[in-house]
Write a structure and sequence with these properties.
Blueprint lengths: L13 H16 L13 E5 L4 E7 L2 E6 L7 E5 L1 H9 L4 H6 L4 E4 L2 H16 L32 H11 L1 E4 L5 H17 L7 E6 L4 E6 L7 H6 L3 H7 L7 E2 L8 E5 L3 E3 L4 E4 L7 H4 L3 E6 L11 E3 L20 E3 L7 E5 L4 E3 L9 E9 L1 H6 L32 H15 L1
Parallel strand pairs: 1-4
Antiparallel strand pairs: 1-2, 2-3, 4-5, 6-16, 7-8, 7-11, 8-10, 9-18, 10-18, 12-17, 13-16, 13-18, 14-15, 14-17
Helix pairs in contact: 1-4
């Protein structure tokens, strides 16, 4: 992780946190975790080199005692800095595991993930999303949200902002004219057709036919001046900054302007994204609020793999959710036309299931917006997750085209990055 990111969070010594800091947090927040922990077994954390504490469910929430309880379902060993990063949400359990920073003397990752929303509730006072206790979705004015509502460019920014804050997403119809959409689509097609598997800042997937296809192309601005200019188009800027005028477009980091291309019959790769949030590996205090502005180049529906969102979930800690688990919850399957714009929080649970029809080919451009602190913490050309991504033989983990590592000289890295790009042209 870029060292600058740690400037935004306190350091927690393992013993001091458990003896001096955590008791007050538990007294204040543990009630938020009580219902979620019904039936859960205790879990213990050990510091590499010595020291351990067991977290145990109680009718009122959580209690913590020194040592390792014999009934603990998992004993998680972490270095002191990694434990501090976990408390601060610099790394989530999944992020620590992917980075190879977790050791289990007992149990495994699933046991830690079972506890993670309750731990977030205790540490930060963040409530836990539960389909058994769904939140009432109302806006700042106390109005119940119509989750099927869409907006038009003529609606006021304040009205759209209120809806976005409450629902976590927004759908604006006819936000971009057709001529602009056709230009952007032509640019996306030109770049996509110029690529060969293994080249560029691209996520590749394999279809059942064996063909490799690009499913996500990052940093499109490197190959398209038209798409680069779109980062600062007044319409994209309007929707990206609805939440706060201080937000800036991430044109040169966090993967820059990118396109998702939905293909049918994907057999291997990240062509179909499961339920997730964009800081699922960590980085919440560094990246969030993160706004995703999606410029729709094609019609989106179930046949070509539309965006689904779990309305209101951006304000909550959440258990992992598989396709099918959303039954009975406030899920919105957003149907769009070319020129529509969607906006959603990175913390909102969202997914893009596989297309149900043949030859999907749906394209959507995304422009991310973040606070100035994100630009201070994450260097040009880097993504927060760069340290955590690995290529997997099963194809389920994307290979990142660019990888920045802590300690790298950024000037040399950037120079080499563009040399590599030019060599592949």
């Amino acid at each position: 992780m870029p060292r600058a990111a740690r400037e935004w969070v306190p350091e927690h010594g393992f013993e001091a946190f458990h003896r001096e800091d955590l008791p007050a947090r538990i007294e204040r927040n543990a009630g938020l975790a009580a219902d979620d922990l019904v039936g859960a077994k205790p879990i213990a954390f050990c510091r590499t080199g010595g020291g351990a504490y067991t977290y145990r469910p109680t009718p009122g929430g959580v209690e913590v005692d020194a040592g390792v309880d014999a009934e603990a379902c998992a004993v998680v060993e972490l270095s002191e800095p990694d434990f501090s990063d976990f408390v601060n949400e610099i790394h989530t359990a999944s992020g620590l595991a992917m980075a190879g920073k977790l050791h289990f003397e007992r149990g495994g990752l699933e046991d830690l993930q079972r506890w993670e929303p309750a731990l977030r509730a205790c540490f930060e006072g963040r409530p836990i999303w539960s389909k058994d206790a769904l939140p009432e979705l109302i806006d700042e004015a106390g109005q119940t949200l119509d989750l099927e509502r869409s907006f038009s460019p003529e609606d006021s920014d304040e009205e759209m902002r209120r809806y976005l804050v409450a629902a976590g997403f927004l759908h604006v119809r006819g936000a971009i004219d057709r001529d602009t959409i056709d230009e952007l689509g032509s640019e996306v097609d030109r770049v996509a057709h110029s690529l060969e598997p293994g080249t560029g800042s691209v996520w590749w997937s394999t279809r059942e036919s064996g063909d490799q296809v690009p499913t996500r192309i990052n940093y499109l601005d490197r190959d398209s001046e038209r798409i680069k200019a779109m980062c600062f188009d007044e319409r994209v800027q309007r929707y990206g900054r609805l939440l706060d005028r201080s937000l800036r477009v991430c044109d040169d980091r966090l993967d820059g302007p990118m396109v998702f291309i939905k293909h049918s019959n994907i057999a291997q790769g990240l062509g179909d994204l499961v339920w997730h949030q964009d800081d699922g590996l960590g980085g919440h205090p560094v990246m969030c609020p993160l706004m995703q502005v999606g410029v729709q180049l094609d019609r989106a529906n179930a046949k070509n793999g539309q965006l689904w969102v779990l309305a209101g979930s951006h304000r909550y800690s959440k258990h992992q959710m598989a396709w099918g688990d959303e039954e009975g919850q406030p899920v919105v399957r957003i149907e769009t036309e070319p020129g529509d714009v969607t906006v959603h929080f990175g913390d909102l649970y969202h997914t893009t299931p596989a297309p149900t029809g043949a030859n999907a080919g749906r394209r959507v451009l995304y422009f991310k917006f973040a606070e100035p602190k994100t630009f201070d913490a994450i260097p040009v050309g880097a993504h927060y997750n760069d340290l955590l991504f690995n290529s997997g033989a099963d194809g389920r983990v994307a290979t990142r085209g660019d990888t920045w590592r802590e300690g790298d000289d950024m000037e040399s890295f950037q120079s080499q990055r563009f040399e590599d790009r030019d060599a592949s042209d």
